[in-house]
Amino acid sequence: EHTTTWKQLNDHLAEWVAASKAHTADGHVASYIPELANAPADILGICIMDAEGNTVAAGDTHYHFTLQSISKVFTLILALMDNGEETVFSKVGMEPTGDDFNSMLKLELVEPGIPFNPLINAGAIAISSLIAGSSPKEQIERILQFFREIAHNPALDINQDVFKSESDTAHRNRSLAYFLKDNGVLDREVDDVLQVYFSHCSIQVSCADLARMALVLAHNGVDPIRNQRLIPRRFVQIAKTFMFTCGMYNASGEFAMNVGLPAKSGVSGSILTMVPGHYGIGLVSPALNRKGNSTAGVHLLGKLSQEFDWSLF
Ligand code: GLN
């Protein structure tokens, strides 16, 4: 089955990418973080990696981009590894919201005052505060080390232009953080927590990095290429469940219906997804739909899922 799929991918991925590329015209590059507005609107790149580390790639895979909200999956995992489930779920809930990713609306509905889940901005900001370390610098260093290990790429680093751009303009995230602080969710200073949050959102990667990170999740926390466990299985299960129910924000239901795989998107137009037990997938196409997900990316994943019957259901 793997051999046939792999052959099909090698033969057709470039043509499917070319067909999905047209959908970039239906979206817009995010501009609320000024630096992201410079992204090319009409590109699409994808990399798929198997358990031996073979890759099939097509489109604009030379393009590098920042993780943005995809980072939230891995900071959640690190926070779980640092604190355990009980502490983490005293600060964030387990339920999807029907609201935009940066919404203020539902902050007070789950257990008075805690964010609905760790993948909306409010929840991810709460998670940033839980990363072990005595200073933001130490927390950021630990996050970088962890992400480099998962991606098996010691060169991963923060894009300082994106970091500064977001930090200078993040009035809404600041207000979310102050709200959380007032509700007793953050044990650290607001500015310190936000520095950590903006830093992990600004880690720069390629599609191949995303595919490798996804591969570890696809194999329940083991990097199958090195045959090395990097994350306890239970924490990967938690992360994948959130990706399935909340990973594509308030379009998670539609994505579950049309693609049927755990996934996480970022406003850079990136999507990390996987075929559990098999492949890690990373893609980027900066033009976004109204819900903040890559238009061409979602289209391409729909096509692949249909072609290979990848839906979990
Ligand atoms: N850094 C971005 C923000 O906080 C992440 C949002 C996203 O990728 N959806 O607004």
Automatic annotation (TrEMBL):
Organism of this sequence: Paenibacillus planticolens
Family to which this protein belongs: Belongs to the glutaminase family.
This protein's name: Glutaminase
Keywords: Acetylation, Hydrolase
Cross-referenced InterPro entries: Beta-lactam/transpept-like, Glutaminase
Pfam families (alphabetical): Glutaminase (PF04960)
Subunit comment: Homotetramer.
PANTHER family for this protein: GLUTAMINASE
Name of the gene encoding the protein in the UniProt record: glsA
Catalytic reaction(s) noted: L-glutamine + H2O = L-glutamate + NH4(+)
NCBIfam families: Gln_ase
List of residues binding substrate: S69, N121, E166, N173, Y197, Y249, V267
Superkingdom: Bacteria
This enzyme's EC code(s): 3.5.1.2
GO molecular function list: glutaminase activity
